[in-house]
Amino acid sequence: MTGRHLAAALALALLGGAALGADGRLSGFDFLGPQTRAMQQDDMSNPGMLAVLDGEALWNRAAGASGRSCADCHGDAAASMRGVAARYPAYDEGSGRPVTLDGRILQCRETRQQAEPLEWESPDLLALSAYVAHQSRGLPVETGADPRLAPFVESGRALFTGPKGQLDFSCADCHDDNWGRHLGGAVIPQAHPTGYPIYRLEWQSMGSLQRRLRNCMTGVRAEPYAYGSPEHAELELFLMARARGLPMETPGVRP
User: Fold this and answer.
1) Has residue 19 got a pLDDT over 70?
2) What is the band of 51 on the pLDDT scale with cuts at 50, 70, 90?
3) Which candidate in 70, 171, 174, 216 is catalytic?
């Protein structure tokens, strides 16, 4: 038995025998206790669904000097946004770089609606992002298939594996080498972010993947990347690309 297989066997024991996927990958959902799983799976109990409903209202509300809503351009999100979030971060022709789903929403708001910008991590931006991503729930992640994204996936991989902060830890030290074990009372997942934006019980609110990544960076005493930074987009791209094929879950619920 190799060290990697031994670590997987230990992790399975800690998870109470949860089955590994065919290729050994697990969603964050697979690391949840039964009560939190039930909360995510029941739309009447999932607190993230309130953000989805808020996002639907914002989708249909006119904003900015254009007087147009998202629906005026894109129509029924259930049809036009089906599968879209499963491809983000995506290649942006204008900048020649990956853009996150939040970043694309902000672009549309600025250029199409000519509206005041939403702040990163604001309830309105999280609600719109949750509403759009919810249209892809159950579909497999496709992020990273565009060959123009390949160098940025590699940049994200370097950020994931590179040591950070005063504790000199990399993301891979926890999420590749020690997944399934406990850190601060919580199980370490494999870093497949299929449920974002998520409702985190610790936060008692919705939050983006960038907020979660910033929490991890603070935990290793590193300077967090700024919201909307290229580093966040590349790291998010790498994480979603390695989750390719796993089903989207938005809105996920986490401890």
Assistant:
1) no
2) very high
3) 216
